[in-house]
Every structure is written in C-alpha cells, then in structure tokens.
User: Fold these one by one.
Assistant:
Number 1:
Amino acid sequence: MKIAVLLLTSFLSAHAFAGLSGQVRIDGSSTVYPISEAVAEEFQKANAGVKVTVAQSGTGGGFKKFVAAEIDISNASRTIKKEEAEAAQKAKVLWTEVPIAYDGITLVINPKNTWVKTLTMEQLKTIWEPGSKVKTWKDVDPSWPDSKIKLYGPGADSGTFDYFTEHVNGKAKAIRPDFTASEDDNVLVKGVAGDKDALGFFGISYYEANAKKIRSVAIAGTDGKFVSPTVETVKDGTYPISRPLFIYVSHASLARVEVANFVSYYLSNANKLVSETGYVPMTDAQYKAGMAKIAAIKK
C-alpha cells in the first residue's frame, strides 16, 4: 500500500500547482454534496484554472450521468446497484469506489412537537411501510395527539431513500406513496420546520446545519436502548441507521491531470473537510487505502 501511495504522490507532485486547467464534473447524492462542494471550493483556491462543478441529482441520477460519461465523479450514499454496474460495463465505463465518510440518517420533527421523544424501528416501519394505516400521531401511540402526520423524505433517485426503505421497511424503494418527496434536502428541512405535525428524514449533516429549526428523534438500537444521532454514535455504529458514503471515480477521467489531482486532494483533506461539513470522517488508514486504489489505476 505504501508503494502505491508513493507512486500516486510522485505522479501528482510533478503536476500540482503547475498552472492546472480543465474541468472536473461531479453529480449525484445530495447527502455527499456538501462534502464534495467543500473539497471543490478549497481545491479551486489553489488551482484557479480548474473549474469544478458539483450538482445533486440524487445517487441514482448521478449514476445515470456517470454511465453516460457526462461526469467524472459520482457522489453516492449507497453502493452501486447490480443493474447500474452492468450498465457501466456495457458502456465500457470503468470505475473505482472510494469510501469517504460515515453518515447517520436522522429522523426529524418540528420543535413544537412536544410528544415525540423516541421512536422504535417497528414504529418507523408502521409509519412508512407500503399500505400503512397510520394517518395520525395517535395511530402510532394512543397517548399522542389525534392530528394528521405530514411526512417528508428524499425522492426515489436518492441513495438515502434506498437505504432508509431497505433498513426500515425491509425492501429498497418500498414505501407509502403519500409523502412529500424531494432530492433537495433543504426543501425537506423547510417542510419540517414549517409544520408542527411533520416527520422527515435525511442525512445528519443537514440536521446539524439546521438544528435550530428542527429536532432529532432518538431511535431504538438492537439492544432496545434509544440512541440519538451524533458524530460519536454514528462512528461507533450504535446509532441504528448509520451508513458509509462514497465517491465513484471514472478511470477514463483519471487520465486527465486535473481530475487525478482533485481526487488526490479530496482524499488527502477528507478528514478535515468531512468533519467541517458535519459528517463523520473515516480513519487515516481508510483514506490511505483509497489513495492506494486510485494509484493502482495509474499504473
């Protein structure tokens, strides 16, 4: 691994800060968006000649553009699906998956909601599963108000949507249809912040950034203890809806010096920038392993 990292470092050092130009195109997960956007901003300060564009069309939307060779890097809040990998193979798009952070899917309510402090995974399933009979908060717990629940969540192209439905409802994309969906997590924040009876979910970073407007709900773990989503509980895995986040890098794009430099910068600075954007960084060893995978492509 050390040899691979040294090879990549040697390759990049000959080009870094040498009047780089070109473009790096990134799209995909709205959850990973803040991390890649932060990296892009810092990278461009040192490499003003490189234009880095970061969009957020959802994990599924990003993979579609990735397979079509419209982007260089696909942000993903889940691993690539079999059919997406097969589509990439058919299109002769070679790629490498690189984990870059951990995230906890956070259940959020309006601060005026005084009755919900905790939820179990079974209660979540009862609320969100296809064919759910839950219409009011009282349907979840008889001691809660008889007021209609307003649900907010990511759209079907979101990796967060896939992960949540699979881990809560038992099957990816299995969910009741009557909820407000958006690929833009800021829309979900606004919806929950403006409705006393709202319940929504999205990544921990968006909760941390909007903690004055919304409130998180502790979720029961496998041992029955209720756990709040925090950096510590996500990192140690005690929060029950935790997951890794990724970037997928095109091998063809890595042949361009600006993309190779950007990916190297991303992994070299991920620990700091992941923390600053409210997510949970991986270990130095994991980032070095990512560097080694990228270095192997350059051989």
Note: Confidence is low (pLDDT under 50) at residues 1-7, 9-17.
Number 2:
Amino acid sequence: MISLVLILPPVLGAISLAARNKFINRVALLGSAAVLLFVAFVQWLSIEWFWLPNWFLEYFRFDDIGLYFFAVMALVFAGVSVYSLFYFKEHNLTAKQEAVYVIEILLFVVAMSGVILATHLALLWVFVEATTLTSALLIYFEKKKSSLEATWKYVYICSVGIALAFVGIILLSIGSESVGSLFFSDLYQHASQINPFWLKLSFAFLFVGLGTKIGVAPIHAWLPDAHSEAPSPVSALLSGTLLNSAFLGLLRVQEILIRAHLEAFSNFILLLTGFLSLFVSAVFMLRIKNYKRMLAYSSVENMGIMFIGVGLGQPGLFAAMLHTFAHSLSKTSLFLTSGNILHDYKSKRVDDVRGLLKRDPATGWLWIVSVLSIIGIPPFPIFISKFFIIKAFWLNGESWLAVLFFLFIVIVTFGMGSTVFNMAFGDDPSDGTGKIRSALSAYAPQIVLLVILLIVGINMPHQAFDLMNKAAGFFR
C-alpha cells in the first residue's frame, strides 16, 4: 500500500506530462485521488500488501496517528481533484498547462505522504523540505507578479525554518548519542537516555522550524500571502493538508519529550504559541479586506487551537485530533468556494463582493454554511472540539485560560461572520442581471465535505471515533 502512495502518483503525473492530453490529465489526477482514498480505507481495515524490499518499508509505515492524518489528506485531495476540473475549465488551460498542474500537485501530495509515513526524523525533514519545493511551484502556477512575490516570500521563510529544524536534528543527535538512531521507535524507547538539556534545545529549534511550516504566530508571515495568491484548489491543499503534515511532524517530536518526562516544557511553549496565534488572527480578522487572506488568518487561528489542545496534555488530545479533521474539511470547502466567488466577481476584495446569494445562490449558501462550520456553530464538529478544549482547561485547573480562549474565539467569530454575511446578503452591483450557475464540479466537493462534517457532528460513526481515539492514543 505504501508503494502505491509513494510511487504511483508520480508515475501517473509523468505520463500526464509526456502525453499532454486532457483526458489523461484528468485520469491521472482523479485516479491518484481514488488510490489515496483506497489505501486509506484498506489500511483502516488493517490489510497490507508488500512488494517493496523490507529495508524500504522500515522507513515508511502506517501507525495509528499517521493513518488518521493520511485519511484526512486523502479526503481533502479527493475534493480538490474534483474541483480542479472546474478550475481547468474556468481558466481555459491548455493540455500542457493541465499536465504541469497535475504533476506538480501529485508530487506535492507524495511529499506530504512522505512526511506522514516517515519513521525516521531525518527522512521526515527531507520530505518537509520537498513539500516546500513542490508547493512553491503550485503557488506560482498562475504566473502573476503578486504570486511570484508570495512564492519567494514562502520559499525564503520556510527555507530558514527548515534550516533551523535541521539544526534541531543535529542537537538531538548530540543529546541522543547513546541511542545511536533517529528512528522514532528508538527515540521513544530510549527517550529517558537522551540528555535533557540537548533535548530541550533541539525541541526549541524543531518547534520554530516546523512551526514555520505550520503557520502559527509569530512565524506565520508567509501564510496569508501564499494562501491568497495560490489557485483556490492549491490554497485548499495548503491549508487542509500541508499544515497538518508539518503539525504531525511536530507531534512526533513532542512524543519524545513526553516519554522523557519533559512535557511540561513543551506544553508551555505549545500553549503560549497557541494563544499568540489566536490573538494575531483575532486582531487581523477585525480589519480584513481580502476574503482569501481572511481564510488564511483563520488557518492561523485553528492551528493555534490545535496547539492548545495538545499543550493541555491528555484531556485535550482527542479535541486536537477532532479539530484537525474538522478544520481540514471546513477550510477546504471554504477555499474551494472562494474560487467560485473569484470566478463570479473577478476580485478578492471583500468590498467588491455583494449580493452573492442573488448572483450565485449555490455558492452563496456554500459560503455561509462553510463559515458556520469553521467558526463552530452546532452541530458542526468544531463546536464539539472547542467545547472539549474548554473542558480540558477546567480539568487542568486553568479555567482562567478558558475565559481568554473564549474571548478570542468570539472576536474571530464576529470578524468572519460579519464579513461573510455582508458578502452574501449585500446588494448585488449587477442588480441580479448577472446571475451565474457553474458546473457541478464547482459545488459537489464542498457539499460532500460539509455532509461528512454534519454526520460526524450529529452522530459520529463509531469507526470515525475509533480512528480519532487511536490517533489521540498515540501519546503516552
């Protein structure tokens, strides 16, 4: 199964690039999405096929938390793949341009899969760097001046972050000289033998390095520009899967500190960064002028919430896993819907979008429902994850932090809600004469993702609960 994930998509992408045929492009893209969903489902059933050498499989493996993050990525990528058919048509891409898009996005997905499946810290670092290189090409795909600027900013900041993460790996190697391995299984088993000073110092560097990719404040400067300038399906992947894969890398490092009984140190940093991310997103959300940047700052907020969930220790871990799932699907729906809005109004400015429900009713309702999902209106699961995090504050005896948490959430909810409802219910500048109805692929992915979220929020299937619970149980 791992072989299908890491080998088949690049092969299909290469065939697409060589053939430069629109039908083959679509088969390669949708086929790769189907393969990832199939692998996630089969792994969920604990079925494995081996046809690669054992030494290869030692470096890539599905564990409980890796399977969970991979399943979320597969869902998001499937939605993005279907929406990309609308993106191809909307931008009148040639067969060659489509082929370039397909191979770039497939290489990006393989790089993220490598991060999720890697069993070795240095190998994980290599794939994190690969996500930077492959996603940079996608951010610049439309070749505009603004996208070029965003791409260079992204590459520069993330490269500095990755370099700091590499320093962290070196420091960890020094501290774990007696262990003699950077495989996560060995680091976990012999965590008590790692020198605490070097382990704390290495965590600080790895935290900043991977935190740069995750997009938490104050190391989030690349995120608003990249998310707003990338094509909408790429923005969905960046927010719904790239941030998650880097977050998983940090969680694997966090587990080393937990097993070394140094979690008080790492939890404090996670909580501090999480609240700082909430503060930054709340401030910017009140004066937002670009709706795609609004979604980017929402990603900063939600990654901060996940940090807080993990930083609260055992009581907040399930909430963090649930929030990861809910944020990824909600934000994917939002970014894909923002692509419809950009198609309808040819502008990313909030002030230029009015009367969305009149001009494109399907997009208008998707926009509203997706925002209700991301801000956590019942019965969407983000309401449940936030409730569990507030409960975790009380269980940890830190109820005063729950008040601060709730305050930031209210500010963000007000900022996003007022912006979105003004866009949806304002007077249409075209007086209703420019009513638009797009292809089914412009709406279907968001509808499916929102239905999944409603099912999980109203009556979570026990299979989904078990998957999340096992992911949270990764931490000892």
Note: The chain has a mean pLDDT of 91.
Number 3:
Amino acid sequence: MEDFLTFFTTDRLIEIAGLAVGLAYLYFEYHANRLVWLMSVIMPMISICIYFRAGLYADFAINIYYFVIAVYGYIAWTFGFRKKERKPLPISRMPLKMYVIAVAALILIFSFLAWGLIHLTDSTVPYWDAFTTALSIVAMWMLARKYVEQWLAWFIVDAVCIGLYFYKGIYFYSGLYAVYTVIALFGYRKWLRLMRSQEH
C-alpha cells in the first residue's frame, strides 16, 4: 500500500492531469473541432512543469510555442485567412511548396535545438529531444493550417516519444503517446473523409 501511495507523487498527479487533457485534445483534434485549441492552452501549462523537471528542455520550450500558436489556430479555424470571406478554414491537402518550407524549417529548427541542447544543457537525449520538438513545431503549424498530412507528422513524433518518455521515466505520458500513435492513423483517415465530404 505504501509503495502504491509513494508512486502517486505530485509529479505523477501532474502527469495524470496532462493525460486527461491530452485525451480531450485528441478527441477534439480527431473531430476537427476548434475546441482543440482550448486544450492547446491548458496542456502547455501542465507539460511545462513535467518536461522541465524531467530535463527535456526542448519539450519545455516548445510548450511556450504551443500556447502562442493555439491563439493563431483558433483564429484560423474560426475565421480563415481571407479577410473578405471570413469563413472557417477547410481541411485541405498540403501544397508542394509548403512541403519544401516545412522540411527546410524542420532541418533548421532541429539543428538549432540540437546544438543548444548539447552545448547549453545537461540533456541526456539531445538529438531525440531536438527531433521530436522540431517536428512538433512543424506539425502544430500544419494543424493550424488544417492540412490533413499533419496526422502523419504527429504519427512520427508520437512513435518516437513513446520510447523517449519511457526512457526518461515519464510513464503516463509514454502511454498517452502510444494512444496518440494509433489515433494518428485513424485521424488521418477521418480527416480524409471530412475533406471529401466538405467538397460536396
């Protein structure tokens, strides 16, 4: 009984809260509901505490970005980008030129983060932390633009995070990202159906 109680430390309870919000986030993202952005405001507040204490400094920093882009995403999903029309943003395929921009951004962000983590922190997993963070930044931008391919980017992030978080002892988040990995595939198919239905 004592071992059971000591397992549920403050850190564990914060992880459980993050797990609950993360599942709500996933539900709203799956259904392309703009409430996903409300979860995107709450989730970083929880994750900042977890990642800093675990020494995942890039993941800590990205949650500041998540907080800012949540506002951007809500506005984009609600009003779109065309000032004259002001209608909700539709789900769409990512244009080829955006792929070029996304890959270039991924390489630059990864290089910057990896260098910083190696030279400025005591991170034990600088390359993996930098990779998941860099790809998450790109994937979050893709989500804000409502590109269906954002699910594929998240699938890669989530699959890597399962092992990374388990290695760092963040077990509830490791389990959460295992769920994310599976849902990412279903989410991709769901958004394809939603995209086709909005075309009719």
Note: The chain has eight helices and no strands.
Number 4:
Amino acid sequence: MNRRDFIKTSSIVTLPLLLKSCGWQDEGQPFPVHVHSDAGTGHLVYQSDQYERITGESVEVVIVGGGIAGLAAACKLKDRDFLLFELSSTLGGTSSAYRSEELTFAQGAHYDMGYPKSYGSEVLDLLESLNIISYQPWKEEWGFTDQEHLVMHRRKNQCYDHGEIRKEVIKAGRLRDRFFELLKPYQGQMHLPTRLIDAKYRPLDRLSFVDFLGKNLDLNDQFLAWVGYHTKDDYGADAHAVSALAGIHYFTCRPYNSEIVELFSPPEGNHYFINKMADRVGGDRLKPNHLVKHITETPNGFRIEVIDTINQQVRMVTAKKVVYAGQKHALKYIFPEDASLFANNRYAPWMVVNLVLERSADNWGYWQNEMLTRDETFLGFIDSTTQHKASPRHRVLTAYYCLPPSSRNDLVNVETTKNQIAESTAQHISNYWGKDIRPTLRQVDIKVMGHAMPIPGKGYLFDDKNQYRKNSNIVYAGVDNSRLPLLFEAVDSGIIAAGMI
C-alpha cells in the first residue's frame, strides 16, 4: 500500500474530541496501555485526614517540588539543612522518565541544545560542575560532555505536512526568507535566562508575535500555521497567543541559521539533568511520594503538612524558609496568601505517548519527526533509533500532544479512552511512514500533564513574583514565575531562589 492510499483509508479523531466523551466503544488492544498521571491528588488530600500524624520534625529549608527548578535549588543549598518533597513517585516534574525492564521512556522535556557563552554564568557554572557541559573555545560556546548523547545533524528532523515530506516545517520561499531577515537583528540579543535581555527589547513582550510579524510581513494562514507549530512546540500556544519577544527568542536565541548547534537527547530526555543534580545532592534529603498539603506561617517560620503517600502518614515539618518550586496553580490550596500572584498564568496541558515496537531491519529514522495534521494538538514524535544506547530489541517512538487550556478538565477521561489514544497515535505515525505500524506494536505508555507548560503571552515575562510576595522567607522558583518554559530558565530560577534565602 502506498502512502497516498494509506492516508485515504485512515480516519483519525482529533484528541480534543476524543477526550470530550468517555462513550467510545472499546474493542480492547492486543498490547497493554498504561496511563501515568497525578490526577488522584485530590483524593489523597481528603483521604489523608485519616492518616497518622507525625510531629517534631524540623529543618532550616523545605523545597516544594522535585523538578528542574527544585533540584537546582537543592544543588545550591546542598550544604544547608533542607528537605525536598515531590508528589510523584519519581523526581523530574515535566522532565520525568520511566523505566520498564530494559526500556527508558522520556515522559516530558526530551532535549536541550548547546549554549552560547553569553548565556547566564550561574547556570553554566552549575552545569559545568555537574560535568554536563564544557567550554569549547574554538566555537566560543558551551557543549555537552557526553558526546554519545548528541544526535547527528543529518538525522535531526524531518517534517510531514498533511502528506508532504520536507526537511523543515517552514517551507522555503520568499516569505520564509523575509521572515528570517526580519529576525536577523535580534541574533545574539536573546539571552538565557531572559532576565539578562537588554531592557530596550522588553517592550516586545507587550505585543503578540503575530502583531509584530504583521507589521512587517504579508502573512497568510499557511505561514502562520508553520510558525505557530514551532511556538506551540516550545511555548504551548501558537503565534497569536505568545508574545513577540517569546517568538523572536525561539528563532534567534542560538545561531541556528549560521552554525550547527549541538542537540543533546539521551533516551531518558531531560531526566538526565535530574539524575545528575540528584546525585550531587544525595538521595536522603529528596523525598518523592510526598505531597505538600498546606503551608502555614508561624512566628519562627512555617509549619508544613506533608502527606507521605507510601506510608500513609502526615508529617508535620517546621522550617524557617521555603523554596516553592511546585506548580503555582496549587497555591490556592497550599499557601493561599500568595495564590493571587500567579492567578493570570495560563498553562498548556501535554500528553506524551510512548509506543514500543519490535525493532526491525528497517531501523533508520530521524530524531524529531515534526507533523502537521488535521489534529493540530499532535506535534509528532521522537525516534529512539537515533539515540545512543537505544534498545537492541525495541524501537521507542515518543509522541507529543499539546492541548489548549480548555481541554484540561477533559484529561480525566484519559484512563477511559486510553486504547483510542493509543490507536489514534499509531495511525498518525503509520500515515507518516505510509505503512501500518500496529502489527509490531507491543506496549503503549501515556503520561498526562495538566499544567505542563506556562504560556508566555503578552506581558508575562520580566515580572518576577518574588518582588510582591508577602513573606520574605518563602521564595518562588520555576518557569511559571514569569520565565520561558525552558530548561535553562528552570535551572536559573532555582539558583536565584536559593540565593534569596
């Protein structure tokens, strides 16, 4: 069957529509489908009223959240008396990973790229001390120490656009040339972290990317769909919803058009960074399966209720200071005094679907397979055959969906519709290759993240909420504190927060 015939015979329901109802007919699957989610948090909170309460525990600092920002703060505070609490069974947050026998699945952020020397020294120093990066004087930039996890440039990406295969998402042509010419003056000016960007560029954060482009280019819907695919991939929304500064930053923060930029993608994705930081700190003070239920101010600091979900206990911990690196939407339950600071944040829900196939002789692929289809929430997939230490017996395809904020409440239906999600994802990829992958499919794992990515809309950046907090002994970290949703920003936010206490 050729590609055109296969596409004609494949009918795919868009993910938002699929999630709207749990009334789909379930015919079962010949392979297991697992769902990973923290959706049961509310149940834990109510159930914990019956748990044994443990009192008398005291530390200097409590860190809430075991993602990139929380671990970065822990690294800076490693010589201090602290405990870190993370709800999930593993550390990582949106950079989590999962192991099943010899397989490793990235369940969130899955790569990073080399760093120009103009990037923030605080993060560069920490990553160098962890032996993750080293300075390359001949290139005047920072590259990755583990060369084995670099993806070869010729295998980096390929785009599928409604049946057409090409190298790049934005199609070659006069409008593409004018687009990059318009952005050229910003090359080298869009630093990370964004707090280092010169003040003269900050007004760009007050208009949308589409408004900025429309003043200079004769735009059309097709071109905006291509640009919007890129911004949705990193920022959770299209070019209408993100600020001009965020959009410009995406395309100009590294010399993509003039140099080959290192792309670092281990099989576990950005959980690689989590493991490095956890090793630096030591495991005794890092507590997964612990949900921070409530933080109360006291004359000497804070009293913190922590649910130990494994031992079914509530630990009453006192601390002088708190680094809050968890998701800010939960503050209305945990520390309502500061919840209003983050009330205007908008988040994109994400779903990561790992498909395990039997590995065949046909094992040459591209690392990132970018896809534009009728389902605008489906962004494509990563192919493990391009990564070092990929499984010799299996091929793992990691597919990504970015949903609109309005779909967040529908995620409760994922467990009910998991077989349909697996089927739909397999059809997307089958269309890409022009052949049915389902006969070789052996396992599917679905990771659901309801508040995965803060959307950097107009006026979002450069407004650190720490300057408005009511108590100087609680400090906020994370990319949902007026940061771009990028690894470098998350690390910097943790370092800065640790320095403030």
Note: The radius of gyration is 23 Å.
